[in-house]
Amino acid sequence: MTERAKLRSPDDPVASETIFDTASDRYQLVNVGWKNSNTRIYGCILHVDIKDGKIWVQHDGTEDAIADSLVALGVPKQDIVLAYHAPHVRQYTEFATGK
C-alpha cells in the first residue's frame, strides 16, 4: 500500500494516504484532496484486514488487483479471502472462502 500511495505526482492536489492499524490488523489506502478547488475528493481505494491468519480484501478499487500482487509475492491463494464477494460466491474463486 505504501508503494501504491507513492504513485501520485507530488503536484497532484489529491493525495493517497495509508492508514495502518497494526493493533487491529486493519489497513487502508485512501485518496484525500480537492479537484478544481471546489470538489472534495475522499475515498477508500484499498481496505485489507488480517483475521484468523488470512488476508481479507474488503475493498479493492485498484487497476491491478491486490490479491494478484500478494500471490506474486508468495502469499498462497488459500490465505486470501476476497471479502468483497458474497460468501456464497467465494467458493467459485481460486481464493479462500473465509469460513
Features:
99 residues; mainly beta; TATA-Binding Protein; 5-stranded mixed β-sheet; 2 helices
Taking the sheet with the most strands, its summary is: 5 strands, mixed
Helix percentage: 10-25%
The H-level CATH homologous superfamily, spelled out, is XisI-like
Number of domains: 1
The CATH level-2 architecture is identified as: 2-Layer Sandwich
Using the alpha-carbon principal axes, give the shape. elongated
What is the residue-mean pLDDT, rounded to a whole number?
Answer: 95
- Indicate the low-confidence ranges by residue numbers: none
Given this structure, which CATH class is correct?
A: Alpha Beta
Query: What is the third-level CATH name, the topology?
Result: TATA-Binding Protein
Organism: Merismopedia glauca CCAP 1448/3
InterPro entries: XisI, XisI-like_sf
Protein name: XisI protein
Layout of secondary structure:
Blueprint: H1 2-5, E1 14-21, E2 26-35, E3 39-51, E4 54-60, H2 66-72, E5 80-82
Parallel strand pairs: 4-5
Antiparallel strand pairs: 1-2, 2-3, 3-4
What does this structure look like?
There is one protein chain. Strand 4 (54-60), helix 2 and strand 5 (80-82) form a beta-alpha-beta unit. The radius of gyration is 15 Å and the shape is elongated. The protein has 99 residues and is mainly β. It is 11% helix and 41% strand. It has a 5-stranded mixed sheet with strand order 1-2-3-4-5. The chain has a single domain (2-92), classed as TATA-Binding Protein.
